[in-house]
Amino acid sequence: MDKISVIVPCYNEEEVLPLFYQEVTKELMKIENIDYEILFIDDGSHDHTIDLLKVICLKDDHCSYYSFSRNFGKEAAMFAGLEKSRGDYCVIMDADLQHPPHLLASMYHAVSQEGYDCCAGKRMDRDGEGVLRNFLSKSFYKIMQRLSNLDMSDGAGDFRMMNRLMVNSILEIREYNRYMKGLFSYVGFETKWIPFNNVERAAGSTKWNFKSLFSYALEGIFSFSTAPLKLSGIFGVFLFVGSIILSFYTAISTLMFGNSVSGYTTIVCLILFLSGTQMLLIAILGEYISKDYMENKARPIYIVKDSNRKHGYN
Ligand code: UDP
Ligand code: MG
């Protein structure tokens, strides 16, 4: 009998967890001939998430929880879930019911019967999200796709069911800076896409604001592409060629036509422009160096404070 592991990162989800548990259990019970486990990863919540999880896990032994010592982020929570899972298939789901549980049955069918390694949900619209966020997200995915050469289309999120082979391949990547959307694509494998409509979260509020989304986007670009470094080089070449042409032009116009060289404003503008671009390029370089620095430290991706599974028993 196949076992499905449902991995649920939870950060301050007290309002929606009981409903999520009910809905997901209902859908999992509909699937014939399977065993399942639901792994809740409490990502350092400050509300009563952990108390609720303890109650749920106490009365249902399909459920387990791992509680982090602080908020390590959704990427770390997903990694922990995959690492602790024991199922033949793993599915990652948000706790807010934005990932429709009724798709679980067709996802399982795709990976167990149709020969796919992975079946992923693809959000077809972005209703319930602001216009600006919508626009920025779409632009980001376009840029990302071009820069990384990986298939990372808009709407392709973390909601996916994978077989053990794919899960193990993802677990082998022990990067500290984790960008799961990229990693799914990086490891390859045959993926079936199932479209679904975006719904507003069932309760509670989103953990993302513009600042966190922006740094998430940068994380994606810097983790999966060295294009910014190449762009700096190309920019440098343009400036170099431009400066040579300008020097020749100035020399000729002064020596041959006797035009006196003036232009305090031009000089000030040029100095500001050049020092500005230099700082920007150093910042880009710094970004890569700091990534390398963090990788070299090889700190743990997450730290577990508490779990209902016995120590050392995974
Ligand atoms: N989440 C998490 N750690 C965080 C932020 C979010 O584990 O630091 C979880 C959250 O509890 C939810 C999922 O990640 O289950 C998606 O979060 P959210 O709904 O806030 O994101 P959105 O759907 O708005 O992209
Ligand atoms: Mg959500």
Automatic annotation (TrEMBL):
<dbReference type="InterPro" id="IPR001173">
    <property type="entry name" value="Glyco_trans_2-like"/>
</dbReference>
<feature type="transmembrane region" description="Helical">
    <location>
        <begin position="231"/>
        <end position="252"/>
    </location>
</feature>
<feature type="domain" description="Glycosyltransferase 2-like">
    <location>
        <begin position="5"/>
        <end position="167"/>
    </location>
</feature>
<keyword id="KW-1133">Transmembrane helix</keyword>
<dbReference type="InterPro" id="IPR050256">
    <property type="entry name" value="Glycosyltransferase_2"/>
</dbReference>
<keyword id="KW-0808">Transferase</keyword>
<protein>
    <submittedName>
        <fullName>Glycosyltransferase involved in cell wall bisynthesis</fullName>
    </submittedName>
</protein>
<dbReference type="GO" id="GO:0005886">
    <property type="term" value="C:plasma membrane"/>
</dbReference>
<keyword id="KW-0472">Membrane</keyword>
<dbReference type="GO" id="GO:0016740">
    <property type="term" value="F:transferase activity"/>
</dbReference>
<dbReference type="InterPro" id="IPR029044">
    <property type="entry name" value="Nucleotide-diphossugar_trans"/>
</dbReference>
<keyword id="KW-0812">Transmembrane</keyword>
<dbReference type="Pfam" id="PF00535">
    <property type="entry name" value="Glycos_transf_2"/>
</dbReference>
<feature type="transmembrane region" description="Helical">
    <location>
        <begin position="264"/>
        <end position="289"/>
    </location>
</feature>
